[in-house]
Amino acid sequence: MTKADITEPFLKRLRVSTEIDEEDERAIRNLPMSVKRMAGGEPIVSLGDRPSACCLVVDGFVLRSKIVGTGHRQILAFHQPGDVPDLQSLFLHVMDHDVSALGNSVLGFIPHAPLRELIKRRPNVAQALWRDTLTDASVFREWICNVGQRDATSRVAHLVLELYTRLTAIGRADGRSYSFPATQALLADAVGTSVVHMNRVVQELRSKGLLDFDRGRITLLDEARLREIADFDGLYLHLDPSL
Amino acid sequence: MTKADITEPFLKRLRVSTEIDEEDERAIRNLPMSVKRMAGGEPIVSLGDRPSACCLVVDGFVLRSKIVGTGHRQILAFHQPGDVPDLQSLFLHVMDHDVSALGNSVLGFIPHAPLRELIKRRPNVAQALWRDTLTDASVFREWICNVGQRDATSRVAHLVLELYTRLTAIGRADGRSYSFPATQALLADAVGTSVVHMNRVVQELRSKGLLDFDRGRITLLDEARLREIADFDGLYLHLDPSL
DNA sequence: CGAATTCTTGACGTATGTCAACCTTGGTGG
DNA sequence: CCACCAAGGTTGACATACGTCAAGAATTCG
């Protein structure tokens, strides 16, 4: 994998997000970056850390989570290639949650200093990154609605559609299915249910012919009905910045 | 109320957040702003809008919310004096949720153009504002945990402590109590329970001598126990930027 | 091939939602 | 100043989605 390949998913996202000129792209490609492979579950940064680099997802998935008082884990977000899950560490110095690899992943670590320099020198890039953190926030808001208002079936359908929509946008969905190396326990942590109940939901969705979830692959069998059940409207993803 | 009074809560926040010099402060004070009084419940911007100004909370409270498919409302955030709840509209052009006044409030509307200009000219201010939107996101994450993992009693205690901590930080708490003009129905929308159950919880907290909630005023009667019940740790508020 | 995950099932308890009525309070107008 | 009204608060009865526990079956992986 060449260095160009590594920044490509990132550049691709920034390009749709704002006007990025040749000079901007060059500056991004010239960022110092140490590439690292990580296994599923491996921690990237943790609660209380004061990271000195940000982590660009190159391949695979990254998740953000928090452990609550009961010892249970709440997953807060999933990140795909092109995302920088801990960009916030540039300005919020202490981590308020954990970041870890979902499946086997390839990550690029960019030290804070050159990233700060980039932001100072290239206002377009700064704006694109800021925008990115704002859409992150928008996704968090929708997750609040998800866990706060919808029942378990609806929540799962919603999550599945969110991932599908975002992966499609970066060309990583494979027709109506996509690879997502999660266990049912992990999905349960994401939507705030127990493993047992998650299993009931998965079976219900399967038996109704709505979706399949097997060996780390999610397949949408009836997207239209899923959208109904999920109460899904992708507006909050802000995928089309021209709007 | 003079113009200086109006920007003061805002400046106060920015000062602790980053290095803001005299020049920065002057630029902020010179922002064009139209001040408006709003009654409780009045909409400020709504889902689908494309606002051309941002709204600074000068006095009172502002809330952000979303209506889900069932018709129920999920409240996503409460904002206090000094906050700019819809700063995101600078970069995400279509609103993905509603913003409205909680009680009677005073708001300052700042057109996008001069705000963009400010951000371009004054990188310190830009950074402070970016940081602000990042702590917003951090609060969203904690709300996800709240509705996803904690029981109703714990959720209410957590919300009450969050508000208390943030209001104390800007000097708007009155000892161990603070004004918060909410009904039980509104609290229910914030923590994702029914009104009936919210009432049960409020009575439980009252009868155990933990807190009181009456006529728009919340009083913490036993902060230590509340913190336990709430599983509250204020780290996520990022109130001390030196950390 | 064995061991560890992951998935699945059933029985059971409970937190919380819904419905429907009633009570309290604060504000308004006569 | 009282009568009234609307909004908010309170109650009880009942239904249910979901959690927990515990065991067993099916995968996956070394």
TrEMBL record, chains A, B:
<dbReference type="GO" id="GO:0003677">
    <property type="term" value="F:DNA binding"/>
</dbReference>
<keyword id="KW-0238">DNA-binding</keyword>
<keyword id="KW-0804">Transcription</keyword>
<keyword id="KW-0805">Transcription regulation</keyword>
<dbReference type="GO" id="GO:0005829">
    <property type="term" value="C:cytosol"/>
</dbReference>
<dbReference type="InterPro" id="IPR050397">
    <property type="entry name" value="Env_Response_Regulators"/>
</dbReference>
<dbReference type="Pfam" id="PF13545">
    <property type="entry name" value="HTH_Crp_2"/>
</dbReference>
<dbReference type="InterPro" id="IPR036388">
    <property type="entry name" value="WH-like_DNA-bd_sf"/>
</dbReference>
<protein>
    <submittedName>
        <fullName>Crp/Fnr family transcriptional regulator</fullName>
    </submittedName>
</protein>
<dbReference type="InterPro" id="IPR018490">
    <property type="entry name" value="cNMP-bd_dom_sf"/>
</dbReference>
<dbReference type="InterPro" id="IPR000595">
    <property type="entry name" value="cNMP-bd_dom"/>
</dbReference>
<dbReference type="InterPro" id="IPR036390">
    <property type="entry name" value="WH_DNA-bd_sf"/>
</dbReference>
<dbReference type="InterPro" id="IPR014710">
    <property type="entry name" value="RmlC-like_jellyroll"/>
</dbReference>
<dbReference type="Pfam" id="PF00027">
    <property type="entry name" value="cNMP_binding"/>
</dbReference>
<dbReference type="GO" id="GO:0003700">
    <property type="term" value="F:DNA-binding transcription factor activity"/>
</dbReference>
<feature type="domain" description="HTH crp-type">
    <location>
        <begin position="150"/>
        <end position="224"/>
    </location>
</feature>
<dbReference type="InterPro" id="IPR012318">
    <property type="entry name" value="HTH_CRP"/>
</dbReference>
